[in-house]
Amino acid sequence: MRRLLSLLLIALGLSMPDGLSAQRVRYGVPLDSIRLSDPAILADSVTHMYYMTGTGGQMWTSRDLRLWDGPFRVAQTDPEGWMGPRPMIWAAELHQYKGKYYYFATFTNRDVIVSEYRGNKIERRASQVLVSDSARGPYHQFGDAAYLPADRPTLDGTFWVDTDGRPYMVFCGEWLANWNGTIEKVELKPDLSGVVGEPQVLFRASDSPWSRERDEEGNVIFNKVTDGPWLFRTATGRLGMLWTSWVYKDYTQGVAYSLSGTLDGPWVQEPEPITPPNYGHSMLFRTFEGEWMMSVHHHATDERGRTRRTPICSPSTSRATSYA
Fold this sequence. Notes:
By secondary structure, the chain is mostly beta strands. The protein has a single domain, classed as Glycosyl hydrolase domain, family 43 (Tachylectin-2, Chain A). The strands form 6 sheets. Strands 1-5-4-3-2 form a 5-stranded antiparallel beta sheet, with no helix packed on it. A 5-stranded mixed beta sheet has the order 6-10-9-8-7, with no helix packed on it. A 5-stranded antiparallel beta sheet has the order 20-19-18-17-24, with no helix packed on it.
């Protein structure tokens, strides 16, 4: 399965789209020269362009995935709302749905502490959806002021339309609040402007057979982290989910499959991770030529001890055929 990451780097440049605000825009940047966590790519058939987002709340654009222009600032949030005037933005994704474009992202207001657990102060953090009429944005808030509960941190929301035809957000319940992270779903309103009902847990970090860590006594236990869910359906109709955790000190990705073919599961975890160490938080997309690709970041430490995350695109051999 490691051939999922043959590390094929791709590119060609593009001029700055109208309507995008930006600072220090660069042009014709090779993908391996970009520093970006949690890369997600939308192949937009309307403009015939690729739009890459991720952690940091900015956008890069390309015509054929080889060279990129950016970063452009595209997220507009309410400074008077729960996110505050300068929210951190993590793991942004773009999704086209019923004629509009949606920006799923995690927002953190570091000035608001919602609880404390095992000595950790839990900041106000949650996944939320922004909207635009154009893939290039800007994306702005709409609908419900908040989508997910304020009293616990949630992150890495992604989009899926299930077999019942209803739209859902699939997201993580952060491990900091309970020491056993979750993957959960919540139904969205038909126009994605808010949620319907309460979140439901699909599986927990402790369900994974491959993610591991050591406790204070040196015993091997499950790793607490759930990160970066992404849904896909295979050529044979199986519903799968990519998600990321840790194998000791290595950021690593696994996959689970739903026995029912729906979000309700039950979800069965593959026994081994599907990426080499320090590759994770991936997603799948289809190129304009019809080839399935995986976008993922490589996690490394430089000579000064700083974490560097580099986006990578590689042909996917997962035989995925559809995604939200």
